[in-house]
Write a structure and sequence with these properties.
Layout (H helix, E strand, L loop, with lengths): L1 E4 L10 E5 L2 E10 L2 E13 L5 E4 L7 H21 L12 H8 L1
Antiparallel strand pairs: 1-2, 2-3, 3-4, 4-5
Length: 105
């Protein structure tokens, strides 16, 4: 199973595609009024009669465990993106013993 992060993330482009043969999990990043939202689509790529590549969103029974593994990997990737884009916590000012003594007086 290979992971292919995108090199650029303009709007309407996935931020990552995780593949296992013809199966893929595509991760999308979208802005909302509440901040960044990540979503994932699962698909099976096939060649149409005209030779073009198409995606199907139904899977055979023998593909389901592979789809589940792709979903697990996408879950881990989305959690990593969330951590990377989480707001920085406010710095905590730790009071020195000297400051605490002076403030207590």
């Amino acid at each position: 199973m290979k992971t292919h992060p995108s090199t650029a993330s303009p709007k309407n482009k996935p931020i990552e595609v995780i593949r296992d043969g013809v199966l893929k999990a595509t991760i999308w990043e979208n802005e909302s009024e509440n901040g960044v939202i990540y979503s994932t689509t699962l698909a099976r790529t096939y060649h149409a009669n005209d030779g073009s590549l198409k995606d199907a969103h139904s899977f055979s029974g023998s593909e389901l465990l592979r789809v589940a593994e792709l979903a697990r990997q996408a879950y881990a990737a989305v959690n990593a993106y969330r951590r990377d884009h989480a707001p920085e916590p406010e710095p905590q000012h730790e009071e020195s013993l000297t400051d605490a003594y002076h403030n207590a007086l």
